[in-house]
Amino acid sequence: MTKHDLVVIGGGPAGLAAALSAWNAGIRDILILERDKEAGGILNQCIHNGFGLHHFKEELTGPEYAGRYIALVKQTGVEIRTDTMVLELDENRILHTVSPKHGYETFQAGAVVLAMGCRERTRGAISIPGARCSGIFTAGAAQRFMNMEGYMVGKRVVILGSGDIGLIMARRMTLEGAKVLACVELMPYSGGLNRNIVQCLHDFDIPLYLSHTVTDIRGKDRLEQVVVSKVDDKRRPIPGTEMVFDCDTLLLSVGLLPENELSRQAGIAIDPRTNGPVVWENRETSIPGVFACGNVLHVHDLVDYVSAESEQAGQAAAAFLLGARPEGSEIRLVNGFDVGYTVPQHIHRGLDSVEIFFRVRNVRKDTAIRVMDGENQIARFKREHMAPGEMETIKLPKVLLDRIQGDTLTIEIEEAAK
């Protein structure tokens, strides 16, 4: 068994940022384990721009953003081991791995950072009825085929779901000569960033059908048609509203799931709202010395936010290894009216400040975020616009945190006056 001070699982933007941050905090024995053949994660296939505006203060493509971090990590003594799959993590921070080069290995880590990212929901996960023909891809798989492998996946395309990857692939397919017939969204609002709706759909005259879904797939060997129906307020198809699209490709952009099989296996507490670990403000999980960051914790909309959060996790892992632990009793965060989840889920008393991330359940205009200590309001933040596709954040300074008397803090959206 090989021992390391810090092992980071995942060599994408989260893992790279966490490792670099821990190195800068004084930890010198750091190992990154990445299952792909190169570091960089999902950014390697995201060849569009729009990355880095917050973190690097300039606009970069995905590979450029990843390349920046890879170059910074290579200037340190951090070891990156690619083509290595972590098979198991236990509560004692022992990792079991396998790779073509080194075979089966075990590692004892002083601390672990979980940075495994997320995966896409598939057709099976959402149970679309119809023929079992070829031509159906997740949007991310199609993106990899086109941008990294050099394969054109189809010519006449329908996209189900308006998540950011689906929106970006609508533009990408169009630029490569395909005809994108429609983007279909089950919800009455888009799940992507507003800028992607404008730049990827509106700019290319691609129609977006809200409150619609695919209700049938037709085809023998290759996809030939999809049937799209309008849905009611309970998301049930409405008979008589069917539209038939002649197409050879269906892309699915129907949500992302944090990749937490290792976390569950280790016995880490999982929040059913985020499908990621329950964490404290320093991103420590329910197992001491195990930290989580990036999309394995909760699905982010900007990689810049992933980097910032992962730097925090790396610093906290370094502090753990150096013997510094947060003190103070627990305050539990609760999601109130129209809030889907909060991260972190627990904070310690006596902090200088804390940043809270959350998503709303519905589109809201001209409203406010309220922070409640029981019946007492300790903070109120006005917002002109909020949507489920865009992550919200609020920062509570020490002067507000010191006002908390109870052991729970509720984050809620102010209800409209009746």
The count of helical stretches stands at 9
Radius of gyration: 22 Å
Coarse morphology: globular
**Count of all domains:** 3
CATH topology heading of the largest domain: FAD/NAD(P)-binding domain
Round the mean pLDDT to the nearest integer and report it.
Answer: 95
Q: Main sheet? A: 7 strands, mixed
Note poorly predicted spans. none
Blueprint of the fold:
Elements: E1 2-9, H1 13-24, E2 30-33, H2 62-74, E3 79-81, E4 85-89, E5 94-99, E6 103-114, E7 118-120, H3 123-126, E8 136-138, H4 139-149, E9 156-160, H5 164-175, E10 179-184, H6 194-200, E11 208-209, E12 212-219, E13 223-230, E14 243-246, E15 249-252, E16 256-258, H7 261-266, E17 270-271, E18 276-277, E19 290-292, H8 303-321, E20 330-335, E21 339-343, E22 346-348, E23 353-360, E24 364-373, E25 376-386, E26 392-397, H9 398-401, E27 408-413
Parallel strand pairs: 1-2, 1-6, 2-3, 6-19, 8-15, 9-10, 9-15, 10-11, 20-27
Antiparallel strand pairs: 4-5, 5-6, 7-16, 12-13, 13-14, 17-18, 20-22, 21-23, 23-26, 24-25, 24-27
Helix pairs in contact: 1-2, 1-8, 4-5, 5-6
